[in-house]
Amino acid sequence: MAVLAGLFALALPHAAAPAEAAPPAGYYDAAAGLSGERLKDALHGIISTGTASITYKQAWNALKVTDEDPARPGSVILLYSGISRSKDQNGGDPGDWNREHVWPQSHGPFDTGTTPGTDLHHLRPEDVTVNRIRGNKDFDNGGSPVPEAPGNRSDKDSWEPRDAVKGDVARMVFYMAVRYEGGTDLEVDESGTHSGNPRLGRLSVLLAWHRQDPVDAFERRRNDIIFERYQHNRNPFIDHPEWVAAIF
């Protein structure tokens, strides 16, 4: 019955959500008129300056705010599953939701002591079992349906999210590749599995997903909350989707 209840609580992350703040005046001035590596470098500087970080423990409560279901304030929307689940049902047991790293930790590698492991721009709530099935797989089209998360598909080395969040996933991945340029030096490429290396694929598929699933109110609200209340930086590809094609 719990599974059925979860399915009937299915929520749409594209549901209307109240807008909060726009980027402050001048936030992207250093990126004006640029493209390619120059734009990437400028954005890296912008979103890496004056930032704050949170601990992995603090991320539990932060996600209860950033991913709150607009229609059910006591719940969060799970990224891949699309289910609206009680904020208090978080943890590590089956039926709980936990903290999904959209850019897998082993594709760094990085830990959860500091960013990028605690960066809210790619941490999302997800069902424990679904999180385990996704694991550290690259993003790509195809595979078999995932019964625990209808609309998602997976095979031995790739994960395809449901259509409603394909663009969300792509923009989170592109953010990570720009934010963590140098140092950990995360990169998006066209190859397959790169566990143990700072690479994630598949670039052509992520570009297609970005075009297929445009930015929505839920993403914009989430971006605003992370900027205002937590990290004080933004995902530029939510504010300026056109910059994806200008860089990648």
In short:
The protein is of the alpha+beta class and 248 residues long. It contains nine helices and eleven strands.
Characterise this structure.
The chain has helices spanning 2-8, 36-47, 56-66, 128-134, 166-179, 203-212, 217-230, 236-239, 243-247, and strands at 68-69, 72-77, 84-86, 97-101, 123-127, 138-139, 144-145, 153-154, 158-160, 187-188, 199-200. It is an alpha+beta fold and 248 residues long. It has one domain (2-22, 35-247). The protein has a four-stranded mixed β-sheet with strand order 6-9-8-7, with no helix packed on it. Strands 1-2-3 form a three-stranded antiparallel β-sheet. The chain has a two-stranded antiparallel sheet with strand order 4-5. Strand 8 (153-154) and strand 9 (158-160) form a beta hairpin. It is globular, with a radius of gyration of 17 Å.
Task: Sum up the overall morphology in one term.
Answer: globular
Number of separate structural domains: 1
Number of helices: 9
Query: Could you give a short account of the major beta sheet?
Result: 4 strands, mixed
Q: Return the average pLDDT rounded to an integer.
A: 92
How do the strands of the widest beta sheet line up side by side?
6-9-8-7
Return the structural class.
alpha+beta
Rounded to an integer in angstroms, the radius of gyration calculated over CA atoms is: 17 Å
Task: Note poorly predicted spans.
Answer: 1-20
Percentage of residues in DSSP E strands: 5-15%
Cα-to-Cα separation, first versus last residue: 45 Å
List the helices and strands in order.
HHHEEEEEHEEEEHEEHHHH
What share of residues is helical? 25-40%
GO molecular function, one term: endonuclease activity
Biased composition (Basic and acidic residues): 131-140, 153-162
InterPro entries: Endonuclease-I, His-Me_finger_sf
Keywords: Endonuclease, Hydrolase, Nuclease, Signal
